[in-house]
Design a protein that fits this description.
It comes from Brevibacillus borstelensis AK1. This is Type 11 methyltransferase. One of its GO terms (molecular function) is sterol 24-C-methyltransferase activity. Pfam families: Methyltransf_25. This protein is α/β, with parallel strands linked by helices. Helices cover 43% and strands 22% of the residues. Helix 3 links the parallel strand 1 and strand 2. The chain is globular and about 55 Å long. Bound molecules: S-adenosylmethionine. The site of S-adenosylmethionine (SAM) has 21 residues, from helix 3 and strand 2.
Length: 248
């Protein structure tokens, strides 16, 4: 897929993966006994919808990391508009090599991004950055049923071959040195309202703009296929929010 068409699809959307503010708030409610001015790290923040919600839920500094500068610029714009620029520091860095000292954060947050490293790999790599008793909250695409129709199984076997079941991820959490606090499946609305619906609208505008470009049209078709697949098979897979505490 050309990067140009990828970013045509993925620019100026409210968010860049399934999620919503209700789910961010719900997950944060399971984070207990952290200081009022807790230091939070948001990994793979994108344009920062969840970062802005975290700023409402807490009083301390938030470091938001991504590798795509336009997303960080958009987050900086949103933070300025809300008058919270002094609390949010966008940092252009990779989740594979986070440039922070050990024991720097009370909470590590990551919505729709840990898959880039792999769930277990991310949990293990980021653990040293957490203070003792710190929390990690992350969403991850998971199988919700053991038996899956071929069509959906095949799509995700190609798009995300290391996708696990919830039970497998619970084991990975314990093995990576965390204690699960809570987990829940993101509701359908978290896929549609701020992500797939705006993306569908964008795709149909682009289909018009690229009507003479076969490669671009093929990419757009693939993107709409993912959306339609979710419409058909949403009971078989979903995004799960896992909230866990570093085990000492
Ligand atoms: C599916 S989006 C989720 C963004 C945001 N958390 C949200 O839910 O709207 C994944 C994000 O990870 C970022 N990303 C990709 N590779 C990365 C890396 N190596 N380190 C940090 N962020 C990365 C992308 O630029 C993108 O913003």
């Amino acid at each position: 897929m050309s990067m140009e068409i990828f970013f045509d699809i993925h620019s100026n959307l409210p968010r860049e993966g399934p999620g919503n503010n209700d789910s961010t708030r719900k997950a944060f409610s399971y984070v207990k006994n952290i200081p009022g001015d807790a230091r939070i790290l948001d990994v793979g923040c994108g344009p920062g919808m969840q970062t802005m919600e975290l700023a409402k839920l807490s009083d301390g500094p938030i470091t938001a990391v991504d590798t795509h500068q336009p997303f960080l610029d958009e987050l900086a714009r949103r933070a300025a508009e809300a008058g919270v620029s002094h609390r949010i520091t966008p940092v252009n860095a990779s989740m594979f090599a986070l440039p922070f000292e050990p024991l720097s954060f009370d909470v590590i947050w990551s919505e729709g991004a840990i898959y880039i490293m792999g769930f277990g790999e991310g949990l293990r790599a980021w653990r040293p950055l957490l203070k003792s008793g710190g929390y990690l909250a992350a969403t991850e695409l998971c199988w919700l049923r053991d038996e899956r129709p071929d069509e959906v199984e095949r799509f995700w076997a190609e798009a995300y071959p290391s996708m696990k079941t919830v039970e497998q991820n619970l084991r990975i959490i314990a093995e990576a040195g965390y204690t699960l606090q809570e987990h829940f499946v993101l509701p359908d609305s978290a896929w549609w309202d701020d992500y797939y619906e705006p993306m569908r609208e964008r795709i149909s505008q682009l289909q018009d703009r690229y009507k003479n470009d076969r490669d671009a049209l093929a990419t757009l078709k693939e993107a709409s296929r993912e959306v339609e697949l979710y419409r058909k098979y949403s009971s078989y897979y979903g995004y799960v929010f896992y909230v866990m505490q570093k085990t000492d």
